[in-house]
Design a protein that fits this description.
This protein has about 70 residues and is mainly β. The two termini are about 20 Å apart. Strands 2-1-3 form a three-stranded antiparallel β-sheet, with no helix packed on it. It contains no helices and three strands. It is about 0% helix and about 15% strand.
């Protein structure tokens, strides 16, 4: 049995290519916060104005790693 696990956002529940219920926008990326052990999509995580290429965790403001 070779099942692939899909990552989903711990906040809105969306997976890549699904619509986030929070923003009603298509999710393109899922990120992982190592500190909180939580996944957030590109719609539910945030970007500071001065670091537009870095996604940050909603809970702890840590820089997150792209996982899908």
């Amino acid at each position: 049995m070779d099942k692939k696990f899909k990552s989903s956002c711990n906040y809105c529940g969306a997976e890549v290519d699904e619509i986030s219920q929070r923003t009603e926008q298509k999710v393109t990326t899922i990120y992982d916060c190592k500190k909180c052990r939580a996944n957030y999509c590109d719609q539910c995580s945030y970007v500071k104005e001065d670091t537009s290429d870095v996604q940050l965790c909603l809970r702890c403001d840590s820089i997150m790693e792209k996982i899908s």
